Amino acid sequence: MNKVDLTKEFGFGGDRFNSLGGVISMLMPLVFTVSGLIVAFYFVIGAFELITSQGEKGHIVSARSKIYHALIGLVLLIALFVVMQYLIPTLIGSKEGLIF
Q1: Which residues form the domain of 42?
Q2: Distance of alpha carbon 28 from alpha carbon 41, whole angstroms
Q3: Is residue 20 part of a domain?
Q4: Neighbours of 63 (CB within 10 A)
Q5: How many domains does the chain have?
Q6: What is the Cα Rg of the chain in Å?
Q7: Percentage with pLDDT > 70 across the chain
Q8: Does residue 43 lie in a domain region?
Q9: Is 22 among the domain residues?
Q10: pLDDT-derived band of residue 23, with 50, 70 and 90 as boundaries?
């Protein structure tokens, strides 16, 4: 299988971005950071809504739902990190993780 050199094909890249895998590897930490911040923000919004609900049943249900969904998102994010950092490199025989 031929390796595609992005520098020749698209005129950008240099040493850091010489393949599609290199580009994806450079973007993964940013994607995980942004995703973690979104999950934390969604959790804080749910917590704030729960605090300010003043006992109204509809607001409490909505706030609990947001908190629950944020926790599910966090668990999925951690599971994806573990798979990409430890499981996939083990299966392909790499000594480095795909993210860090």
Answers
A1: 28-92
A2: 20
A3: no
A4: 20
A5: 1
A6: 20
A7: 76
A8: yes
A9: no
A10: confident
Sign of CA dihedral 55, 59, 64, 66: negative
d(CA 71, CA 68): 5
Q: What is the mean pLDDT of residues 63-90?
A: 91
Q: Is the pLDDT of residue 4 over 70?
A: no
**3-class SS of residue 96:** coil
Give residue 62's pLDDT band: very low, low, confident or very high (50, 70, 90). very high
Crossing angle for the helix pair 57-82 and 20-51, to the nearest 10 degrees: 160
Q: Going by C-beta distance under 8 Å and a sequence separation of 6 or more, which residues neighbour residue 17?
A: 6, 7, 23, 26
How many helices and strands, by DSSP H and E, does the chain display?
4, 0
Residue 36's pLDDT band (boundaries 50, 70, 90)? very high
90 is written with which tokens?
A: 């083990």
- Residue 33: inside a domain, yes or no? yes
